[in-house]
Amino acid sequence: MTSSDFFPATRQAGLDRLAAFLPRAGTHYASQRNYDYGPQRRSNVSCLSPYVRHRLITEPEILRAVIDVHGAQGADKFIQEICWRTYWKGWLESRPAIWTRYRREVAALSAKPHPGVAYATTGRSSFECLDEWVRELYDTGYLHNHARMWFASIWIHSLKLPWQLGADLFERHLIDADPASNLLSWRWVAGLHTKGKAYLARADNIARYTEGRFMPKGLAELPLDLDEMPPPAPRALPILAKPPEGAACLLITEEDMNPESLDLAGMNIAGVATVQVTDSVFAKSALIDAGARASAYFEVPVIALPALAAGDVAAWANEMGVRRIITAYAPVGPTAERLHDVTGRLGDHDIGLSLVRRAWDDSAWPHATKGFFALKAHIPALLELIAP
Ligand SMILES: Cc1cc2nc3c(=O)[nH]c(=O)nc-3n(C[C@H](O)[C@H](O)[C@H](O)COP(=O)(O)OP(=O)(O)OC[C@H]3O[C@@H](n4cnc5c(N)ncnc54)[C@H](O)[C@@H]3O)c2cc1C
Q1: Predicted ipTM?
Q2: Distance 187 CA to ligand 1 centre (A)
Q3: Over the stretch 106-155, which tens digit does the pLDDT of each residue have?
Q4: Which atom of ligand 1 is nearest to the CA of 182?
Q5: Which CATH number fits the domain 246-356, given the four candidates 3.10.129.10, 2.102.10.10, 3.40.50.720, 3.40.50.620?
Q6: 3-state secondary structure labels for all residues of the chain
């Protein structure tokens, strides 16, 4: 089965998957989620990640549905896992330099041949399980969370390969590739997120949670002691000016494909455009779905911009006769970088670009600048925020 068979790139497919998983999102999920039964048996986890990563479905609507069935207590574990995504996003948002440093390091490391990386990425490492997960990653674009942890640990601590190139491999092949969850999870496994606390994969843990499919020999018994420049102090969240009321066009990026639920009060949407920055195949199809939904919802025409470039955006705005573009806030990553660049240049065309951030992010991210515990303590307030 290919990744597009298993992950149809539409909001409806995400909603269907959520509905099918709901009965298992309570105690079943809590007791079964750590098992990786292999690519043919994924019913113990939700496989919602590509949909929520691109916000085809949003965190609040997932949590409301889950709480309706199980209550907040009964779905405690699932709620926390959704909040891990929020935590990583908030943490990276407060330290964007970690992202730019990582991309610089990937560029420098990729410029030189690395035989160990070449072996590991072509299924010829000394670990059968890693070779199998590499195949699964290429074939399906998905790995179970535990497999991602074991993979990263073996890559870093057993094979002693640069963690940045492992993170980059995931970024290029995961269907749910997410700058924050991916980069910061790799850093966590490497012992760089919480200094001195690396994640070390153990053979008995792998054997237990794969039900004996794998029992690797020769894993590192101690984690590498990696060091780096200390991360910068957290910055405050950028304050966003409220977009002026009146006519505007809506730009949909792969960071948020749920325009129906954005707070656009007072704005008169005159047109919709979609635009993609990465080369994700999932995002490409999902943007077609998001554009069609937005066009029907706002009853306006939709176009696909060829690139996120000031000239293209300005030409579209001029054609639609508006001086303002609205788009959902893009968290740290390639889209945010392009948007930052375009915002500056649009001024030359006398066009303003306004970002709209969701209440969920506004409430959660300030609690995500240190460890997960502070955000966990804020979960009751988040649930109150999204209560019907
Ligand atoms: C090294 C590494 C790299 C990762 N890279 C990514 C990535 O690029 N994109 C991505 O979306 N997730 C990433 N994760 C997190 C996690 O593995 C996936 O979100 C999860 O496995 C997706 O499968 P699921 O939807 O079936 O999860 P479920 O177990 O059903 O969890 C439900 C939802 O909770 C969230 N979630 C669960 N576990 C985590 C977690 N550890 N961190 C953040 N959110 C979580 C996801 O939104 C997920 O869809 C990574 C984890 C590791 C260890």
Answers
A1: 0.99
A2: 15
A3: 999 999 999 999 999 999 999 999 999 999 999 999 999 999 999 999 99
A4: 5
A5: 3.40.50.620
A6: CCHHHHCCCCHHHHHHHHHHHHHHCCHHHHHHCCCCCCCCCCCCCCCCHHHHHCCCCCHHHHHHHHHHHHHHHHCHHHHHHHHHHHHHHHHHHHCHHHHHHHHHHHHHHHCCCCHHHHHHHCCCCCCHHHHHHHHHHHHHCCCCHHHHHHHHHHHHHHCCCCHHHHHHHHHHHCCCCCHHHHHHHHHHHHCCCCCCCCCCCCHHHHHHHCCCCCCCCCCCCCCCCCCCCCCCCCCCCCCCCCCCCEEEEEEECCCCCCHHHCCCCCEEEEEEEECCCCCCHHHHHHHHHHHHHHHHHHCCCEEECCCCCHHHHHHHHHHHCCCEEEEECCCCCHHHHHHHHHHHHHHHHCCEEEEECCHHHHHHHHHCCCCHHHHHHHHHHHHHHCCC
